[in-house]
Amino acid sequence: MAEESKTKQNPSFTLADIAKAAEDAAVQCYGVIDLAHDDSFRSELKEWLKKGDTSGAIVRQKKGTLEIDLYITVSFGVRISEVVLEVQKKVRFDLEKKFHLSFHTINVYVQSVKAL
């Protein structure tokens, strides 16, 4: 659930735009079945109140840098560490190319493993 505030580096797009682009890049990676939801209490509360989506990407702006948390579901039988590394590389590359920003951290959390 990305905040709707504009980024300080470029006010022409929001953190929600960055989150959507991160989600799009992540699901293109081999081994990623789908995006999962953040299992935090805050996410469950927002879902219960129907105030905002509980998407698989959260973008935060801290001290002038951007941080992204991605929550994914991976396919059974793939090397999880390789999938996570590939997601980090792809998301960083796509976002830096599209938005011309640098990202401090891109955290990838595997929420589940499912067989196809």
Description:
The protein is of the alpha+beta class. The chain has a single domain, classed as Cation efflux protein, cytoplasmic domain (Alpha-Beta Plaits), CATH 3.30.70.1350. Helix content is 36%, strand content 28%. The chain contains three helices and four strands, in the order H-E-H-E-E-H-E. Strands 1, 2, 3 and 4 form a four-stranded mixed β-sheet that branches. Helix 1 crosses helix 3. The radius of gyration is 14 Å and the shape is elongated. It starts with 14 loop residues before the first helix and ends with a strand. The model has no long low-confidence stretch (mean pLDDT 84).
What proportion of the residues form beta strands (DSSP E)? 25-35%
In total, the number of domains comes to 1
Which fold does the CATH topology refer to?
Alpha-Beta Plaits
Distance between the termini: 27 Å
Structural class: alpha+beta
Count of runs of 4 or more consecutive helical residues? 3
CATH architecture: 2-Layer Sandwich
What attributes characterize this protein structure?
Alpha-Beta Plaits, alpha+beta, 116 residues, single chain
Structural topology:
Elements: H1 15-27, E1 32-35, H2 41-49, E2 57-62, E3 65-75, H3 80-99, E4 103-114
Parallel strand pairs: 3-4
Antiparallel strand pairs: 1-3, 2-3
Structure described in brief:
This protein is an alpha+beta fold and 116 residues long.
